[in-house]
Amino acid sequence: MSFFHRKAFWAFAYLMSITSFANAQDLNKKVAGIAINYDENNVPDYQLPELLISENGDKITSREEWFNKRRPEILSLFKTEQFGLFPEKPKLNFNVFENDGSAFNNKASRTQVRLFFTEDTTKIKADLLIYLPKKSKGPVPLLLKIGFSPNSNAVDDPELKEGMMWTREGERVPASQGRAFKPFDVEKFLDNGIGVATIYYGDIEPDYPAGFKNGIRGHYLEEGEDYPAPNEWGTISAWSWGLSYAMDYLVTNDHIDSKKVALYGISRLGKTVLWAGAIDQRFGMVIASCSGEGGAAISRRQYGETIHHMVHPNRYFYQFSGRRAKYSFDPNSSPIDSHMLLSLIAPRPLMLQTGDTDYWSDPKGEFDAAVAVEPVYELLGAEGLQTKTWPAAEKPILKDLGYYMHAGGHGSLPSDNDVFIDFLKMHFINK
Fold it and tell me: What Gene3D superfamilies does the database record attribute to this sequence (predicted)?
């Protein structure tokens, strides 16, 4: 389906949607002309798909049945119905252009690696920036953060060369001219024996509808195709594919404990790290911040952002497989929901972080999904949340499944890092 056919489809679909939203939601609250529900009383009745019953009706009762039968079924559904099919990665190709640099008053060693995603090293490539604590005597755990800005903006390190950044209008500009974000507090993690790596999502695929022309998806398009077909990968799969490629490098670095690499991303990149952790089980932990619709929040709740909002032609349809649009008006017709995405991480540690006023991302829907996935964690010998009571803000639940809601809105706050570090140390250092 071409880009223009998709636009025509959605113009028709939007007209069909107006009546279905009018009865249950406040039409004065809209995004892209689509009403928003912020009232728990208007959450419809729903039934989540079964996690531990296979497609042929067999009950899943063992670890072997989960990994050999049910997990592959769920993974396949997310590939076809939500994130899209993606190609095999090419053989790892990289260049370490800085090794054993020094940073943060000699507290950390700095390594910079250029990852080449195609045989032509002049085209699609990404810089992976790695800081490791110098005081450590052996391989260290690592937090791999995928971010919205180039590495020179992501970290307060004056030794880094300025990177290039994609604007939302599709222009590539110096990082200092792009959207600004507060630098990540790398030193706090280093002080706790944890390394930090960062990668810019725009180097893998720019984040706008026609970004595939300058990203990895465009490299794999069939000749003459102007936009990926409905069952092909969206940008979330592309970013996840790039993270898996980065992991291909990390396992070669003897100073990193490759079994203790945690993924971390915020918002759409929270969705990304969930999917990356699902498709690549080498990642030892996932920390997803405010991942919301398409991430950890239950779609069937139709609270805050919905499938319909996400796949609207003026918003983020390009982040998903085109087939995701089938469930825009009836999430209950989908064979999947967010608890199933979370199940693909089990039994590895998973932290869902959100904010108590981030209604758009539905913090309760994320908690309910974590409660729903607990039977899979328990089947695999891990601990779920062990409560069905939604906690107040600033009251973290730290098991193998973790949930934390700060007092505030969308994204992560500097104080959230303390909770992340506690979770990382709990599973990667103190165990």
Answer: alpha/beta hydrolase
Smallest CA-to-CA distance from 305 within 82, 36, 46 is with 36
Q: What is d(CA 126, CA 200) in angstroms, rounded to the nearest whole number?
A: 7
Among residues 242, 244, 246, 215, the alpha carbon closest in space to that of 228 is found at 215
Could you confirm whether 334 is annotated as catalytic? no
Residue 168: burial class (beta carbons within 10 Å; 0-12, 13-18, 19+): exposed
pLDDT at 4 over 90: no
| CA–CA gap between residue 313 and residue 304 (Å, rounded) | 18
Domain assignments of the chain as residue spans, ordered by start: 1-80+284-431, 84-258
CA distance 321 to 384: 30
410 carries an active-site annotation: yes
Residue 89 sits at the vertex; the CA angle it makes with 85 and 91, to the nearest 5 degrees, is 165
In the numeric block, which tokens belong to residue 260?
A: 């203790």
Distance between start and end Cα atoms, the chain: 50
Contact 373, 332 (CB under 8 A): no
- Report residue 9: phi and psi, to 5°: -60, -45
CB atoms within 10 A of CB 105: 7
Rounded alpha-carbon distances, angstroms, from residue 170 to 157, 202, 206, 395: 27, 11, 8, 41
Q: Beta-strand (E) ranges in 148-194?
A: 164-166, 172-174
Q: Among 17, 152, 237, 267, which one carries the catalytic annotation? A: 267
pTM, full prediction = 0.93
The H-assigned helical ranges of 311-362 are: 338-343
| Integer Cα distance of 155 and 131 in angstroms | 10
With tokens 């095999």, the residue in question is 88
**What are the Cα distances from residue 43, in Å, to 127, 299, 311, 370?**
43, 11, 20, 18
Residue 431 pLDDT grade (very low, low, confident, very high; cuts 50, 70, 90): confident
Backbone angles phi, psi at 362, to 5 degrees: 60, 70
Whole-number Å distance between alpha carbons of 171 and 179: 12
Query: CA distances (Å), 312 to each of 8, 116, 190, in order?
Result: 11, 33, 41
Where do the DSSP E strands lie in 218-310?
A: 256-266, 285-289
For 148-199, the pLDDT digits (tens) are: 999 999 999 999 999 999 998 889 999 999 888 899 999 999 999 999 999 9
Q: How far apart are CA 285 and CA 35, in angstroms?
A: 36
What's 322's DSSP letter?
G
- Identify residue 246 by its one-letter amino acid code: A
